[in-house]
Fold this protein.
Amino acid sequence: MLYYLFDYLDKIMDVPGTGVFQYITFRSGLAVLLSLLLSTIFGKRIIEFLRNQQVGETVRELGLEGQTQKAGTPTMGGLIIILATLVPVLLLAKLDNIYIILLIVTTLWMGTIGFIDDYIKIFKKDKEGLKGKFKVIGQVGLGLIVGSVLYFHPGVTVRKDTQRTNILQPTTTVVSPVPLEEKSTATTIPFFKNNELNYADFLSFLGEGYEQWAWLIFIPIVIFIITAVSNGANLTDGIDGLAAGTSAISVLTLGIFTFVSGNIIFSNYLNIMYIPNSGEMTVFISAFVGSLIGFLWYNSYPAAVFMGDTGSLTIGGIIAVIAIAIRKELLIPVLCGVFLAENLSVVLQVSYFKYTKKKYGEGKRIFLMSPLHHHYQKKGYHESKIVTRFWIVGILLAILSIVTLKLR
């Protein structure tokens, strides 16, 4: 909203200094500051409200050190992250930008699913929360919306360089590259030279005109990624500060990718795919990073509030949508390696237990407990040490992800 006000003052009223709001970097900086202030100052009030409403965490007995002390700690703290993200975005971002609209929808959609899940756990006294199938239906629904918009909306394009001949004089010609924006299902493959993959090529066997059916491949991939990443973030939220900290690292890295992908100068210099209008997401990402860091003020050990599914599902959904929008979804296993490890630890644990029980009559385990962070707790590591080391791993993976800009 402030963006449009200052745009009016700059273009219509010609007020000096208001043109600074045209710069994404300026608005992104303001978004970080505002989200930090909102999450730290108003976060305390939200926590007090949750405590007064007796919105406390119900802790299942898992035999983990320090677990019983966490009972009654306010949950649903994801509301802090959501509010501290959306307020700066509504004030500072271009609200007619299709990518901003998608991220706002993702935030509200996944936040609602998480809120319902937390509500059932707390007020209905059902520890299982929202049934798994309904969570999946919600994630699939969001995937359908995001995938359809990214595929069919005319404002979602990529740039392809073509050649144009400029005749300067009868005997002189100059050939220069001209950016041509077009619809495409192309994405980026990390670590490979000529690293573009077009999902439509999987349907080349259909013959001429196969590109029109690319949505049959693209939309299911979007659904899978959103479901996988949101569940990964949800599983990671098991000890104080782990999900918020690792997510902040991943989102900040995606912010760098978003800024260079949406800037024609940087994308040309780095020889990466230019995605028109995507740079506006940098404002959203900045607000999101600020809200996550501000939330850590209260969520670091010992936590004064938990984010609950309201926060974890929202975080995962947003990360997935940003990565898909800037054509970096194949980098997610590297960038979100902590989420992947947490997911795989659960899958491997359950699969191996079922396999050994069927074969030997007694289930065996790979880890002392899953997800992975509980395995280290069982080994006697203090949770603050586990979180710090997972953050370090997240930083190393983020650096490796950034290096892929030129390492191919």
